[in-house]
Specification:
mainly alpha, Arc Repressor Mutant, subunit A, 2 domains
């Protein structure tokens, strides 16, 4: 088995097992065994064990959520804003058990969360999200404001998905988020 296929098998089996058993009821040894690889192979690809697997899965999720695909011509329309919300919600729902696992890990290791969130906060990665937010708030926003809005979006999105429509229907949630985005943008100095 080559490195790529071993890594893929580990990731796929981890997703399956997290969904079936929950993150905390799972060991790296069980993931390795079910994936058909040795413990050493798992740790070769994922040096921090389950935490490294979660990081890798999170990176895959971010890559799956291609904001550029939503904005066909670079100009953001209301329809594209709605598609953004729905695509992010759909992806989060598909990965609900993973999101729960990630939340548990982040609560147990807050320093990890800070380092982890900075890794994904690159301007290039956030530029499409920034355009969507600017469409919603009706003006340009700075990086600091964007970071706040992104953190709020991800936190409330997770709660909405984990607690199965905590904030009402998806339309109600989307409308609430737009109001929050506008409030944050209007209260931050440009």
């Amino acid at each position: 088995m080559n490195d790529v296929s071993a890594k893929r098998k580990i990731i796929d089996k981890a997703i399956e097992l997290i969904s079936a058993k929950g993150y905390h009821n799972l060991s790296t040894r069980e993931i390795a065994r079910k994936a058909g690889v040795s413990d050493g192979t798992l740790y070769y690809h994922f040096p921090k064990g389950k935490l490294s697997i979660l990081i890798n899965l999170s990176e895959e999720l971010m890559n799956d959520l291609d904001y550029y695909e939503i904005m066909e011509d670079g100009v953001v329309t209301e329809e594209e804003v709605t598609r953004f919300f729905m695509k992010d919600l759909d992806l989060a729902r598909k990965m609900r058990e993973f999101i729960i696992a990630m939340e548990i890990e982040l609560l147990e290791k807050p320093d990890f969360y800070l380092n982890y969130s900075q890794k994904f906060a690159s301007i290039d990665r956030l530029e499409p999200f920034k355009k969507i937010v600017e469409k919603i708030v009706g003006r340009k926003i700075n990086t600091h404001t964007l970071s706040k809005i992104m953190a709020i979006w991800k936190a409330l999105l997770r709660r909405h998905v984990i607690f199965r429509n905590l904030f009402g229907s998806d339309q109600e949630f989307m409308n609430m988020m737009k109001k929050i985005f506008r409030a944050v943008a209007n209260n931050d100095d440009y």
